[in-house]
Every structure is written in structure tokens, then in C-alpha cells.
Amino acid sequence: MAHFAKVRNSDGVVVETVVVANEAIVDGSGNEQESLGVAFLENMYGEDSDYSWKQTSYNGTFRKNFASVGDVYDTLNNWFRGVQPYASWTLNSSTAQWQALITRPNTWNGGQTVSNDDLSDEDKPDVYFWDESAYQADNTKGWTIIDDPE
Q1: Which of 19, 34, 117, 145 is deepest in the core (most CB within 10 A)?
Q2: What is the biggest distance separating any 2 CA atoms in the chain, rounded to whole angstroms?
Q3: Domain that holds residue 129
């Protein structure tokens, strides 16, 4: 199945995502063609000059990220990215993902996977969240442990 995002032309915001059968986007030589999917969707929903359809990859093999409603299509880079979550985060141009300027601390025990039911409270992994106000007050801080994630 192929996935397409309906993008508002004025600001690049994704307003809808749809699935299109592969048969609708494959040409006579057996190659996928985005233009065939766009034509199929315009025929189904009608043409609208305020919006355009862009194919998106569920596994991120092109256009960097799978488009979700609210994400942004960057016409300059031809990729989808999320909305900037915090004022201090920057966009990684290799991944089109937002990231903090401070690396998130490792959580517990080298990434070993075990059930929380098998752990005492002292052994449970730390859970971190980004605290923008802490970063703005002191740009060496930002990741904060959630005391009780349950």
C-alpha cells in the first residue's frame, strides 16, 4: 500500500493522510509513480489549488519521515518533519528530526530489557522529560527525571 499526505500549500501543514492501493500508482512497466497516485486522489477527491498530495513513506525510505496530521512538508528539502516541540530544539538536517542541544541521559542498565514487574522500585529505569524552563534558566540543564512515571 502507498501512503499520501494532503498538504496545505500556504504553510506545508499535513491535514490528512490516506492509503492508496499499489495498483493505482504502478505504471505499465511495474514502477511506482507518485504522479499516478496524485492523479488518482485528485480524481477521487477533486482538485483543489489550496492543497497538494505528496507521497510519504511509512518506513521513512524517502522524504525522511512518515507524514502525520500536523506535520510539515518542507518544500525546500522535499521532506516531512514534525512541528518544533521546544524553542531550544534544533532540526537535524540528516534525519529531519528535532533534537535537544543536550543529549538525553542514558536510562538504566545499558538498555537491558526486562519486565517492570520483575524489578524493585530502586531498579526501575529512570524516565526523563524535557523541561524547557529549566533549560532557559540554565542551558546546561533540561532533562528532568519523572519521579513516578505511573
Answers
A1: 34
A2: 62
A3: 109-146
* Rounded Cα–Cα distance for residues 5 and 94 (Å): 21
Backbone angles phi, psi at 80, to 5 degrees: -105, 145
Tell me: do 7 and 75 sit in the same domain. Answer: yes
Spatial distance between the Cα atoms of 89 and 87, rounded to a whole number of angstroms: 6
Sheet strands side by side (includes 2-8) = 14-20, 2-8, 51-56
Q: Which cell numbers in the block locate residue 121?
A: 522500585
* pTM of the full structure: 0.79
d(CA 16, CA 48): 14
Strand partners, 79: 74
Tell me how far apart the alpha carbons of residues 116 and 16 are, in angstroms, rounded to a whole number. 37
Cα separation, 23 vs 44, in Å, equals: 15
Confidence of residue 114 (pLDDT cuts 50, 70, 90): very low
Per-residue pLDDT tens digits for 36-46: 999 999 999 99
